[in-house]
Amino acid sequence: MNSFTALPADNAEKKFTLEETLELARRAIAYAHRHIKIGSTQISNNQLTPEEFTSRRKAIGEESLQDDSFGIRQAVNTVKNPLENDLDLAFFESVVMTSAKYSVGNCAEFAHFALDFVLRNADPAMIGELFYIINGDHKFLVLNREPGSEPEKPSTWGENAVICDVWANDAYQASDVMTKLNNYARVDGVNTLRKFNPARQVLTCDENFTTTYLRPLRTIENLKINFITKLTKLKDTLENYKLGLVTVSEDKSQSERDKAKQIFADRIKIIDVITVDIKRMIMTIDELNLSEPEIKDEILDEYRVAKSKLCRLYRKFQMETVAAMQFSSAEQQVLFLEENTKTPGLFGLFRNSQKSPLRRNLEEISDQANHSLLSLRTSNSSQ
After folding, report:
1. Which domain holds residue 354?
2. Which has fewest Cβ within 10 Å: 9, 157, 173, 327?
3. pTM attached to this predicted model
């Protein structure tokens, strides 16, 4: 995971007025409310029936679910993007896109949306940071906090710092925090507001969910680098698998039948075609039109459009790579004619306790290829 990135000195010198910052906060609030229509923690939800309220909590993912359904917070954790290696960036993108898809969210989702707006629309020198309340239950966005000020002390943030509380539909000068910032609580089945209490609560910046941290990661160039890295891994996997097939096919004691030799030859041709296609894609990636959206939507910026297109291409090559290393049932009957094969294994190879030398060799190169592909799936969680 990337370490926290300090604000560049030239950006730190640029100043924004209170009114400029408040206007940006209002625009971010409007943007978030255009996409998130319902939640569960708002005071207005006290008018709902218990069944309606429970339904909303389930939609968010706050209610314990007894069936196979799940809310958006569970859905966020199931979204895996192979081209975003940083886990916090991947989580941020997933929160925004999932909340937009279902139009539901509470303070956390609203705050992510506000940060998303600032990331994509504000001057790059504007600092936006997600804050939350320790010993409380609320999340919001802080704009234009003075670099070097103390996160837990709003009095040090500067006169032009602004709290953008999308959930409360309010934006105000940070110096008003003691009179305006509320903390959500569910008391006796009722949504309630409680004033922020510095005697037992602390404001904290979620430092990996800031414009300073996310903006350098959220680039098309990074997507291209990750795309090329993963395609290269697919290419290497195919080439190593092909090398193993060539070795096996040249061993007359293991593949002396003409039909078996033809199966290996056909498989090697398929691998060669896919390998050439991958190499060509790596060489011509800069010629791709990555930023033109297929549909018009304010949530889709150039980064998300490029990510969607590159992900589709990567998954296409990934599926072709896996298919190229699979022997059909008919091919296996020819290759393992002397065996009574019953149990399927990796890459469609049937496993059997009475293994021929040919089977053992093919299983070995298949296991190596499988390990290589698994490393691609887990690389996102290790960075």
Report:
1. 220-382
2. 9
3. 0.84
